[in-house]
Amino acid sequence: MICVQENDFDHGYEYQQLRKDADSDGAIVTFTGLVRDFNDDGAVSSIKLEHYPGMTEKALMNICSQARQRWELGQVRVIHRIGLIDASEQIVFVGVSAKHRQNAFEAAQFIMDYLKTQAPLWKQEGTPQGLKWVEPKSSDADAVKKWKIT
Q1: Rg (CA), the chain
Q2: Helices in the chain by DSSP H: which ranges?
Q3: How far apart are CA 84 and CA 8, in angstroms?
Q4: pLDDT of residue 42
Q5: Lowest mean pLDDT: which of 6-20, 37-51, 74-88?
Q6: How many other C-beta atoms are found inside a 10 Å radius of the C-beta of residue 101?
Q7: Which residues contact 128 (CB under 8 A, 6 or more apart)?
Q8: CA 80, CA 21: separation in Å to the nearest integer?
Q9: What is the chain's percent helix, strand, coil content, to nearest 5?
Q10: Under a CB-based contact definition with an 8 Å cutoff, are residues 117 and 136 in contact?
C-alpha cells in the first residue's frame, strides 16, 4: 500500500494493518519520521512538501518493487504526507513484514534511503526568515550508495 496524503496517519492502525495481513511472517519493522524543529541553520517551525501527483506514487511503488526484488517480503506500507506540516508532526511511515527480521530491517531502511533521494518531493522549511527550499543532502546520497550492487 502506497499513499501520499495531506492528513496525518495513525501509526498504531498502520501497524495493525501490517500485522493483520502479514500471514505467517515472523517480523514487522516500522519507521515513523517526524518533522524536526531544527536544521543546520537553526530553528524550523514547519515543512511544506509539494509533489507531482501520479509521479510520486509511481516512484514510491518502484522503490517498493526494488525492495521486493532484493528481499523476501510480506506486506509493505508507505505513507508520505504533503502540504504544510508543523514541527514534531509525523511526515512518513514505512512498514515492512517478512519471515525473518533481517529482511524486514534491511528493506525498511532501503525504502527510506531511496525515498529520500528518488521520490519526487520538494521541501521548504519554515524558518524565522521565511520559507527556505531544502537542498538534497550528501549524507542521503551516501546512504543510497551502500545499496548499489557492484
Answers
A1: 16
A2: 11-21, 55-70, 101-118, 138-145
A3: 11
A4: 84
A5: 37-51
A6: 13
A7: 42, 43, 45
A8: 21
A9: 35, 35, 30
A10: yes
